[in-house]
Amino acid sequence: MSTETLPTLAELISRTSEINSPPLIYNRLNEAINHPRTSVGDIARIISEDPGLTTRVLKLANSPLYGSRQVDSINRAITLIGTKEIRDISLCVSMICSFSTIPKEFFCLHNHWRHSIACGVLAKNIAIFQREPSADRFFVAGILHDIGQAALCATIPQILENIIAITDHENTVLNEIETRELGYDHAIFGAELLKNWNIPLNIHELVRFHHSPSQSDSHGRDATIIHLADIIAQAFGYGSNAEKRVARLDSEAFEKLELSSDQCEMVISQSEQQIDDIIAILTAEL
């Protein structure tokens, strides 16, 4: 593949941001959350302006992911889920509904988000077992971990199609061929894209290192949770159509996580009861 026609990382981020960017409602929620006088009612009013987001938030709040409680208002949903978490979920919902220009011939959006949502559910449950604070950030980072893959397909579809063909020919994993051909992979691209959109560090750093958590200086443990969730999701059939092989396990990072086999089994069992419900909620219009 000729490198002369390939865009640099900065060029691709600029090109993608012209097509896809965080929705206005995400920016408004972010501004409101950062204002000291904002109330739960203020946040609820912003969310209520978007019927699709309102429906998904209420369904999520009543889903097994949050204990199948009877939540009948956005105010109660915000109290249950959290204001920052609601903001980040709004970003996920908008990203799932975007990238509509992706060619469907070789990249199925439904399969992509099916894998990403499964990763998010697994990551949140691993984080709960690990007693990590703010477990919902793992849910969000899991959903967005392959955002770079979708963005690559939306902006340089022919190049990505060629890269996928190379992985088939050489029988290797996608991110390694991306790095060789582009100089960066979808994890780095996705993280830089989220950073450009002012998405919090504790999300975009997890996206950046979800294939190589041991390389992260400050978020290695958190990135390992996304890394493991990604692999489990692939192994249990929630695979992304661009990544046809299960990613390589970063054994050094996994050992530091100290997750027992019994805990892994419990995470998988608990997640299996939740994944399909959450996929149905978040991909209803795809």
* CATH architecture type of the domain at 11-21 and 100-282: Orthogonal Bundle
Helix-residue proportion: 55-70%
- Any idea what the CATH superfamily of the domain at 11-21 and 100-282 is called? Hypothetical protein af1432
Alpha-beta content class: mainly alpha
Top CATH class of the domain at 11-21 and 100-282: Mainly Alpha
Question: How would you characterize the overall build of this protein?
Answer:
The protein is mainly alpha-helical. The protein has a domain at 11-21 and 100-282: Orthogonal Bundle (Hypothetical protein af1432), CATH 1.10.3210. It has helices at residues 9-19, 24-33, 40-48, 51-61, 74-81, 83-97, 109-129, 136-144, 147-155, 157-170, 174-182, 186-196, 201-208, 220-235, 251-257, 261-282. The protein is globular, with a radius of gyration of 18 Å.
